[in-house]
Amino acid sequence: MSSPRPAPRADELACVAAGGVIGALARAGISVWLPHPHPASWPVATFLTNVLGCLILGVVLAFVDGRHNRWLATSPRRARLARPFLATGVLGGFTTFSTFSVEVVQMIRAGSVGLATAYLGCSVLVGIAAFIAGRALGSQWFGVSAVDLQADEEL
After folding, report:
1. How many angstroms separate the Cα of 18 from the Cα of each of 11, 85, 109, 135?
2. Which member of 24, 49, 109, 152 has the greatest number of CB atoms within 10 A?
3. Could you tell me the CA-to-CA distances from 59 to 13, 34, 83, 130, 144 in Å, in that order?
4. CA end-to-end distance (rounded Å), the chain
5. How many angstroms separate the Cα of 68 from the Cα of each of 2, 62, 71, 73, 74?
6. pTM of the model
7. What are the contacts of 126-130 at 24+ separation with CB within 8 A?
8. pLDDT at 117 over 70
């Protein structure tokens, strides 16, 4: 069992907050571009946003993880703040589990249980597949980086 993670520093919190604003604004733009007028219909904007976010997360993590050790030597602050800004901030603000959850409940309440079930299953499975594809693409583009979940949690 690992020791508890230290409290985040102020600059890490600022990076997450700034990235979150950027991601949320991008998500809002997609919501305006693809409105979801009826609760019994497929929420295209949220589905697209979450799947795209998973794909981009895979690419971003491949990029950041592939450079982490080099950045530790040349720019330790970048090495420490890249993940909080890009992954947690931008992509955390861009994707939305809360809207996804509300939409599933609204579909069920509107009597579209089958559609809600399909939306739930597709969101999870396609999201995971998109992340794996993004990680593979990122590895091709930026070089292979070891995936070490324990080390990932310590970054």
Report:
1. 10, 7, 36, 24
2. 49
3. 23, 25, 12, 10, 11
4. 17
5. 21, 10, 5, 9, 10
6. 0.85
7. 126/47, 126/51, 127/50, 127/51, 127/54, 128/54, 130/51, 130/52, 130/54, 130/55, 130/58
8. yes
Neighbours of 89 (CB within 10 A): 25
Q: How far is CA 46 from the centre of its chain?
A: 13
**8-34 burial, b for 16+ CB within 10 Å, e for fewer?**
eeeebeebbeebbebbbebbeeebeee
Closest CA to 94 of 5, 19, 23, 143: 23
The answer to whether the beta carbons of residues 21 and 85 sit under 8 Å apart is no
Of how many residues is the chain composed? 155
**Structure tokens that stand for 127 in this block:** 């999201």
pLDDT in tens, 63-92: 998 888 888 889 888 888 999 999 999 999
**Distance separating alpha carbons of residues 97 and 80, to the nearest angstrom:** 26
